[in-house]
Each structure stands twice: as C-alpha cells, then as structure tokens.
Specification:
The chain is mainly beta. It has 2 domains: 56 residues, SH3 Domains (SH3 type barrels, Roll), CATH 2.30.30; 84 residues, SHC Adaptor Protein, CATH 3.30.505.10. The strands form 2 sheets. A 5-stranded antiparallel β-sheet has the order 4-3-2-1-5, with no helix packed on it. Strands 6-7-8-9-10 form a 5-stranded antiparallel β-sheet. The longest helix is centred in the middle third of the chain and has 7 residues. The N and C termini lie far apart (43 Å).
C-alpha cells in the first residue's frame, strides 16, 4: 500500500516523535481515507497508538468515532494538556467540559465581571473564557500558540491560571505584554 499525505503537502512535519498515549489535535480535514487510513475533521482529538516505521505516519484512535487507522504526522499537533495540571481542577472558575449554554446558566444572575473557563467543545485542546457583562455572557476562545495561551494573539500567558489571575497592566509570561 502506498501512503500519501492526506493534507496539504506544505504542512510541516513535527520535530519530535509522539509516544503511544499522546493526545493530538488534527490540523486539517481527511474525510475520504484510503483503506487503513483514519478519517477525521480539523480539530478532532486522536490518541497515538504507535509510530509507524515510516516516521511520518502514526496509527491512532479517533476519540469521537473510536475508529483506528493511519494518519500523517503533518496532519497533527500535540494537544497541550493544561487541564492535566491538578491545580487547575481545584480552581473554582474552571468548569471543564460544559457547553456554552451550561456556562450561561452557571453565570446567572448576571453580574458584570463574573466569569468561568471551560474546555472548548468545537475546538478540542482550546478553552473558552465566558464573562458576564451587562445582561450578556461573552465567550472568548482561548487559543494555544507556540506553547502559550492567547485570546487576541497580542498578549500571551503561560497557563490559564496566569491568564485569569494576572492583574491588568502586570507582567505576563515571557517578560511583557505580547512576548512569549
């Protein structure tokens, strides 16, 4: 069987190999797999089962479908495991895997500045900062960028606790605002 890269050939290959058990996020869509390959959509969560002899391929298990198959290393990025930090689950503002509607319910009655952080259902590996303002709850996607977290890509934080607890105008991860 000849294996071809399911995504754009311009995707860079990861610089290190992932061990079995590593959770990854797919960076592209591959909905028409060849026999033995894994079907996935951009943002899906997969777990590495084993690295193939060809170092640019892995056998992985898809979290949602439970299916196993091959996929190209260039189609993956490692899922950053901030939620694995035991301190995070102790934070009263972290609510884990709840929906946007559940977040709105948790933030009732409305009170300006009341907030919570939840895991993103639409973008596995990312988080959502939900903030009560006026009569609304505003949902801000928290992105992983180069090992740091950001909402606006101008200011980066080392982790969720730093993002939530840093007073406005104070130093953030890497020395100053926008540095990372």
């Amino acid at each position: 069987m000849t294996l071809t890269h399911p995504c754009s050939p311009s995707l860079p290959l990861p610089t290190r190999r992932w061990a079995p058990g590593t959770q990854c996020i797919t960076k592209c869509e591959h909905t028409r797999p060849k026999p033995g390959e894994l079907a996935f959509r951009k943002g899906d969560v997969v777990t590495i089962l084993e690295a193939c002899e060809n170092k640019s391929w892995y056998r992985a298990k898809h979290h949602a479908s439970g299916q196993e198959g091959l996929l190209a290393a260039g189609a993956l990025r490692e899922r950053e495991a901030l939620s694995a930090d035991p301190k995070l689950s102790l934070m009263p503002w972290f609510h884990g895997k709840i929906s946007g509607q559940e977040a709105v319910q948790q933030l009732q009655p409305p009170e300006d500045g009341l907030f919570l952080v939840r895991e993103s259902a639409r973008h596995p590996g990312d988080y959502v900062l939900c903030v009560s303002f006026g009569r609304d709850v505003i949902h801000y996607r928290v992105l992983h960028r180069d090992g740091h977290l950001t909402i606006d890509e101008a200011v980066c934080f080392c982790n969720l606790m730093d993002m939530v607890e840093v007073p406005s105008g104070h130093q953030v991860c890497g020395g100053g605002a926008g540095q990372g």
